[in-house]
What we know:
Low-confidence stretches: 438-459
Number of domains: 1
Shape: globular
Number of helices: 21
Amino acid sequence: MHKSGLPWQVVLPALILGFGVVFITYGIARHESLPLLSTYTVCFVAYLMVLYHTRQQSASLVRWLLGFAFLCRLLLLPAIPNLSDDVYRFIWDGRLWNQGINPFAYLPSEIMASGLYQQLSGIDTTLFRMLNSPDYFTIYPPVNQLIFSLATWLFPHSVTGSIIMIRLCILLAEGLNLILLYQLLQQVRWPVRYGLLYAFNPLVILELTGNLHFEALMLTFLLSSLYFFNRGQRFIAALFFALAVCTKLIPLILLPLYFRRLGWRKAFYFYGVVGCTTLLLFLPLLSRELITGMSQSLGLYFQKFEFNASIYYIVREIGFWVKGYNIIGTAGKGLAVFTLLLILWFSVKEKHRQLPAAFLWVLLIYLLLSTTVHPWYIIPLLAFSIFTPYRFTIVWTGLIFFSYLGYTAEGYQEPFLITLLEYGIVLGTLVYELSRDPQRPFWQILGKQGNPKANFISFIP
């Protein structure tokens, strides 16, 4: 068939992928490992087939496929998230705000134990039992809290209605992400079909639209910031960067990358706009409770939570061998400090002029040294890798979903062999890709733009 048509080699796997993500979202529970992982594997193979058969296709077909990828997301609109229960904390926070209660001020367990919930509409034992962290303060920044409050204000007594409203915001963000990726690829004069790497990835569809993780909105703001930065509109770029920080705090680790690119005067102007905008957005929430609650939650994140980690698990095993107990309390803080120092070193050393590539490596440093790496954490990594010749991120999106193998009806048990295989294959792929140019210093390899055709997996665009 002519390139501008709809070849069945592309349409068939796209349909299979669409049916697959719908089946997972509506028909499979998180602990049903065999149907969940087998269906995901089918979706991922279909995704690779779409990529393979669009290597030489026209821009018009790519635009059609981007529209179909958004339709796959739209089909999930009325679904209740089945792989994550974070949404119930969203609803909890929103209902508290709408009744004049600061969710940063009280633990959910404190509200229930004190009997305060009896005076609040929609804050009851049913919703409380759905929370996954009732003994931790909320950690969601102001953009999220605004959306939570709006969704629960519109549907004060309906969990489903609130979920649909939150998902509409995620769908809007994802639609913008597909457009922004297309525009950014045109800006840097790379093939627009690279946007399909993100658009059709089943992990992206399931975790962002399906499970309502706000990496979708964070990416919208970061991609918008990159778009305006490339156009020389630094003030607008800084505003969008601040919005990204106020959605997920993680973009803060990307700020050192701007210093060398802008020079100290322009960099401090950029930082000033980001800082002032962030402060203004946090201002409505600003209180002693916000500072105390968020700092406690961040501290607990680095000292209590562990999931699907890599280097941290090695450190932890050494701790068991030397100390005889889990040293996460000290190892988590130590790794966080080491991560910051390594990112600062990288920001000084790397000379690459394309920010998405630098974003990729900074986020990779953070994830490899983190104590917790949920599947949706690596999605920004995939988005930024589109602008580089590296494709280890695609391998990772295929393997990290198998971390769901540890879920049972009773709880979660880490599948360490699966985790070992996951990181072994991903890091092996990364080392292979980096070793293809052994003459370059390590930091120059990390910042290299490279040849977009020189990928590890040759049939992936």
